Amino acid sequence: KGGDPFVFGRGGEEALALQAAGVPFEVVPGVTSAIAIPALAGIPVTHRGLSRSVHIVTARTADTPGGLPSDLDGLARLPGTLVFLMGLSQLEKITARLLAAGRPADTPAAVLSGGNAPHPASLRGTLGDIAAKARAAGVQPPAVILVGDTAALDLTSSS
Which end of the chain is more exposed for a tag (fewer CB within 10 A), N or C? Predict the structure, then answer.
């Protein structure tokens, strides 16, 4: 997950516990990996004319069958970029559900493992083939999964 303690982290729970105990604390915000890792790979999560929204989704839930978000079918129908955190082990299930919900197989997708990852990787493909590409490349967590038109961009410096 990394980056900001309030994005799928325990920051909120920890702050509430400290408040309840009367312990003073300070929140130090960070930049969420949902935006930072794609930016390092040259992928903006929003881009004029391609994506006017970004939806950051946890790919692991404890209270749903299969561990996927219950609203995944609805998310599949939203315009913009979907960013999944903590989802590499769920990648095949995620792509299958998005496809079943009507997201086109040729939708650009990327799997990015960077930042402090032991084995950085930057894979691009489509919703239809990204799971197989990630499996073949042996991508290891932590990884960020992107689905949407911006995933096809590579705005890294050419120099």
Answer: C
How are beta strands 81-85 and 54-58 bridged, if at all?
parallel
Q: Across residues 142-151, what is the average pLDDT?
A: 96
Which range has the worst mean pLDDT, 50-54, 60-64, 67-71, 85-89? 60-64
Nearest to 146 by CA among 92, 88, 102, 83: 83
Examine the pLDDT at 159 and tell me if it is beyond 60: no
Cα gap 31→159, rounded to integer Å: 26
Half-sphere exposure for 60 (CA within 13 Å, toward CB): 9
pTM: predicted TM-score of the whole model, two decimal places: 0.90
